[in-house]
Amino acid sequence: MMRDAGRRMSRFTFVIVVLCMTVLCPPVVWAEGFPPSISKSVIDTQNLLKVDEKKEFTKVAADLAQTYKLLIITDPKPLTLTQYAQQLPSKFTINDTTMVIVVSFNDKKIAAVSGKYFTERGITEEVVTRKADNFFTPYAKQGAVMKGVLSFVQSIDTDVKDAKPTEIVAQTAAANAPQNVEAFPVWLLAGLALVAVFGIGLIIAFTLRKRTLKEIDETDEWRIRTSEQLNLFTVDPSWKKEPGRIKEKYLAILTSLDDLKKDAIVDVELILADAEEMASQFRFRRSRDILTEARGKLMHIESDLEKLHIRLENLKETLQDVSSFKEETNDMRQKVERRFSELKIQYNVSFHTLKERLNQLDRETGEIKESEEKGDFHVARDLLQQVRDNLIEMSEELEKMPLIRQAIMKDIDQEIRQLDEDAKEMVTGGYTSGEEFFLARLIKIRGKAEILPQLFEEGKIEETEEQIGKVREDIEAVYQTMEEIVTSRHRYRQYMTELPHYVMVLRQDEQFLAEELEDLAQRYQVEEGEAFRYYQQIPVLVADAEDALEQIAAAEVPEAYERHSQMLTQVAERVTEIMERRELIMKELNEFRKGETAALAEVKDLRASVARVEQQLKRLYLPAIPSYVADSLHHCRQAIASVEGALAESPLNIQKAEMLLKQAKGQVENALEQAAEMVRDVRETEDKVQRTNRFRRKDPEIGKLLKASETAFRAVRYEEASELAAQAYDLAVERYGLD
């Protein structure tokens, strides 16, 4: 029984240990990764915050006595945010005066871990949780995460400044106290239990009361700060000197400000008094609900205050724009009217359209005054801006009127007369068959030009400009037509000159390709390709070109151009296109014969190399040529002849020819090397014999070697002769110091 109990106790202990390890050591592997460093004031690896929000936190944290750092993460799951924050000290070094604030961006939750300095001043985990509920959560629910963080930090900093370091007292209880064998009476145990429960209830109640009162104090501090912000909101006293409608706008803003001061702030103060009364009555849930209502009102007050700031700035900006636009439009109106009067006198016309536009400005000015009287200053500003734009447009039109007048009275007329002269010159030069071709266009252009003076006198400046542009476009179109006619005539003459030459070239190509393609078909087994298509098109194209030239030659010159211009152009373009392909065809033919041409060139080089060596050997006037050299040169000529025979076969087997050519090149290289070695032996023998000959009689051994070398030389053993001559030379150097 004892052994089984021990086993059950062991199993129970093991389960407890596993559960504790599971609770105390959560699976960090699955949690969001930790940042590489927390040296910066804001750690946001995923850029969840805006740049302005990061700068704002950095600025606020820099002004505080302690160090505050903000870590932004997306989601700590599967950990809780508190567990994630509690693991930071094991990952990074956190100083005593440093607090790291962790914000889960998706969950809108906040947690903090800090050094010993904060703990000694009462900033415990419960305080952090309460601060988060009171100062961060209301803002986070509305999407203002950074505003909630700043409010949380300021509240923590205030508590740290007001608190004194706590003394940590270790309390020890007496252990192993002697137990009395006699049992206590039941009534005494029940009484002690009731006293303990009552004491614990009192402790909990007063703890909750203290916490609630602290929250009330924090909310009251928030109210005081908001009240100070309301008192700082001021308006320049000069508004009292403004006209009635403007004064009403300022009064409305000040009235709203007074409502916030007198009503909203007072309401919050009364609500906090109710919350404090509920806390005194130990009605903590009701007190918290009232505190939530107070915080909501404070947030609305701050929002309304921000809106008042915006209203004031917008009003100032609108009034400033209205004032500047009025001054600018008055000056521009005077300049426009002055210039308008000058032009009326100068040209002696009414310009009634422009006059009507000026009258329209008077009506718009009346609407502006009416809007100002109603207090619609935004509408007045928009109307003033519209009037200013219209005046700018009219001023630009008035400045352009002298140029437009000159274009109507002088430039357009000259351009039309010049066009008429050029058209007559085209007819005279034979480029067209009659004047009717240009006459209809000239009549249309003159009709458009006759409308221009009337439009100008009516003051329709924009329409006049458009009409002048249309007249000039029509003139330019006629000139473009003339240019096309002249270009076409020149091209016609060019084709008449070049086409006979092209026909002759095509006939030559036809003769050349007939033989070349037949050879390709027989020797290379090639019967298709660009060259074959080119050859097939030549007869048809030559026939069409000759037919066109014959028809043109049989007609008169003007009639030939009118009747056959298009036909000649089409034929010439076809001929030009096929001539552009001619170079490609020749390249294709060369590509077909590329292997054969290269092989023939190499065969020619090999034969020249063999002939050059034979001539060199003849010039040496040797007793005879060694058989191995003569046989090698003979084999080279046979190999070269076999390559030439393979290249002359029909059909051509280029692979066979290339293989034979490779063998021939090897034989030629071997023969050339043997001939070079033989020539070298001959020249060395002659040189050393000549330089050693004077010691022949003086030294019998040298004379014997020289005689043996001469005998070997006459016997066509040039290598042996070279070696004997070298031995004689070496003895002469050794014995007589021969240089």
Automatic annotation (TrEMBL):
The beginning of the lineage is:
Bacteria, Bacillati, Bacillota, Bacilli, Bacillales
Q: Name one GO biological process term.
A: septin ring assembly
Show the Gene3D superfamilies listed in the entry: 3.10.310.50
Q: Which GO terms describe its cellular component?
A: plasma membrane; septin ring
Q: Which domain of life is it from?
A: Bacteria
Identify its membrane topology class. Single-pass membrane protein
Organism name: Aneurinibacillus soli
> Could you tell me what this protein is called?
Septation ring formation regulator EzrA
Keywords recorded for this protein, A-Z: Cell cycle, Cell division, Coiled coil, Membrane, Septation, Transmembrane, Transmembrane helix
Q: Where does this protein chiefly localize?
A: membrane
Which InterPro entries does the UniProt entry name for this protein? Answer: EzrA, TPM_dom
Q: Where in the cell is it found?
A: Cell membrane
Q: Name one Pfam family in it.
A: EzrA
Q: Which residues cross the membrane?
A: none
